[in-house]
Specification:
flat
């Protein structure tokens, strides 16, 4: 193995534990050559809290359909982002 492409292909075949060992080995070699890591990125607690809230809101919106009483009365379930078609698996519950 002499090219980066060959090394990458071989690394791809390694089990996860050996990949981790390889990363630690390479990091140690880089430090020994004087390579400096970029400075850590700093975020405020408010930024992190907002990202978490946004992420959880997005997850909830995708994971759970919004059911409206009017939609149920009409035989439709209203999903996030305005989807109004009743999925087949819900139809028995609406009859």
């Amino acid at each position: 193995m002499s090219t980066l492409a060959e090394i990458e292909a071989a690394a791809e075949q390694l089990p996860a534990e050996e990949k981790q060992e390889l990363i630690l080995f390479l990091a140690a070699r880089l430090r020994a050559t004087g390579f400096e890591l970029p400075p850590p990125r700093m975020f405020t607690k408010e930024q992190v809290a907002q990202w978490i809230a946004d992420d959880e809101e997005g997850y909830r919106a995708q994971a759970q359909p919004e059911v409206s009483l009017l939609g149920l009365l009409k035989g439709k379930i209203v999903f996030h982002e305005g989807w109004e078609d009743t999925p087949e698996e819900f139809k028995p519950y609406l009859e």
